[in-house]
């Protein structure tokens, strides 16, 4: 995903093809548990509801391309729920993937002299995904302790992955990533802190905080530059100069909220919405910068609400809320593997929920495909870990 053009699509295509071949053979399907059925229902709803609203409002049928991916994730989920997967394959892929991001990011910054690294993705998504993979590697460090004699090699691999991911996230420069860091850290501490390891985790978090503070204070640091740019954008916005990254977002959101007061349930056709924005500009309620972004509001929640109505917004909230709820219920599971996978799943959803406040994460191919595949893969592997734990003989009293 990081180091090849359209790299995220290859694994997705292989998984989909494998699932369709598997279903065509009419394999015996085990009874799905209620959470599995709910997840399938949410994926189906995210296909049906926004698609129906898009067509009803007369918006571009090309938008359906994003929603149909939720439908295609269902056979992949069924395949993975019925097919044992070696967890070492997932961890190895995560480490290799994020490790490949760092040299590419270094090349773009120091050889091509780009201001921000983007890999072969959108600049914002490159930074956001790097942060998610860093989170996976941090969770993997906790899982590595269950691997006996192989624990130290796994720890070394995860530390390498976390370092590469953090580097890529920093030089990618997405401030939306920063918003996701505090809640994700709290989620991590809730999941993995015990009476036996709280001191080690506290020391590790302190070390990470000092490292980030040092990187921020370093002269010419990308973190410091992006912070100063944010302060400058907000200062300019207060003086009514809105043609900046943050200022334009504020205006887009103000215009969207104003128009939603007129159609809070039905939503808007894009052409009519653009005309409404022109009316707001003429009345001086928003600045002309909003007309440059009438079809991309840089907020997934407002985007869904405006162009698929309240039903589309509810479908989006369900796509985030239900997986987060079911992953979250397993964050303190007694089995370390299940707990680690639950954290990775919940962390993915929580991160996306934060990223979506300043970016339309699910309206780019890489954004929606990574989210859907990460959720179904982590869900299936977590369920497999739970089943293995349940099938083990009870220990004698």
From TrEMBL:
Its main location: membrane. The keyword Ligase applies. The chain crosses the membrane at residues 6-24, 39-58, 64-81, 88-107, 119-144, 156-172, 201-218, 304-328, 368-385. One of its GO terms (molecular function) is ligase activity. It is a multi-pass membrane protein. Keywords: Ligase, Membrane, Transmembrane, Transmembrane helix. This is O-antigen ligase. It comes from Castellaniella defragrans (strain DSM 12143 / CCUG 39792 / 65Phen) (Alcaligenes defragrans).
């Amino acid at each position: 995903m990081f180091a090849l053009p359209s790299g995220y699509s290859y694994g997705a295509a292989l998984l989909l093809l494998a699932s369709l071949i598997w279903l065509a053979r009419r394999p015996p399907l085990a009874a799905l548990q209620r959470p599995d059925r709910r997840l399938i229902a949410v994926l189906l709803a995210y296909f049906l509801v926004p698609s129906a609203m898009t067509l009803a409002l007369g918006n571009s049928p090309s938008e359906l391309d994003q929603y149909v991916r939720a439908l295609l994730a269902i056979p992949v989920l069924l395949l993975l729920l019925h097919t044992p997967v070696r967890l070492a394959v997932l961890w190895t892929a995560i480490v290799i993937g994020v490790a490949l991001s760092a040299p590419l990011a270094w090349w773009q910054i120091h050889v091509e002299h780009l201001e921000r690294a983007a890999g072969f993705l959108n600049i914002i998504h490159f930074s956001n995904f790097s942060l998610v993979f860093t989170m996976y590697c941090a969770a993997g460090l906790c899982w590595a302790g269950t691997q006996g004699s192989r624990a130290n090699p796994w720890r070394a691999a995860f530390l390498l992955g976390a370092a590469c991911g953090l580097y890529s996230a920093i030089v990618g420069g997405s401030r939306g990533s920063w918003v996701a860091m505090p809640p994700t850290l709290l989620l991590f501490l809730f999941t993995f802190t015990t009476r036996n390891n709280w001191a080690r985790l506290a020391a590790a978090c302190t070390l990470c905080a000092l490292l980030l503070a040092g990187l921020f204070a370093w002269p010419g640091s990308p973190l410091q530059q992006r912070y100063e740019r944010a302060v400058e954008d907000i200062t300019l916005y207060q003086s009514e100069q809105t043609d900046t990254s943050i200022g334009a977002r504020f205006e887009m959101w103000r215009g969207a909220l104003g128009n939603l007061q007129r159609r809070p349930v039905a939503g808007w056709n894009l052409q009519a919405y653009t005309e409404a924005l022109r009316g707001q500009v003429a009345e001086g309620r928003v600045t002309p910068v909003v007309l440059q972004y009438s079809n991309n509001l840089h907020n997934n929640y407002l985007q869904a609400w405006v162009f698929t109505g309240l039903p589309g917004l509810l479908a989006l909230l369900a796509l985030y809320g239900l997986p987060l709820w079911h992953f979250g219920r397993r964050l303190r599971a007694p089995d370390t593997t299940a707990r680690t996978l639950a954290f990775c799943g919940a962390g993915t959803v929580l991160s996306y929920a934060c990223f979506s406040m300043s970016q339309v994460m699910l309206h780019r191919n890489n954004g929606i495909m990574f989210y859907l595949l990460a959720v179904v893969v982590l869900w299936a592997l977590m369920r497999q870990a739970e089943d293995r734990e349940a099938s083990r003989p009870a220990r004698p009293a």
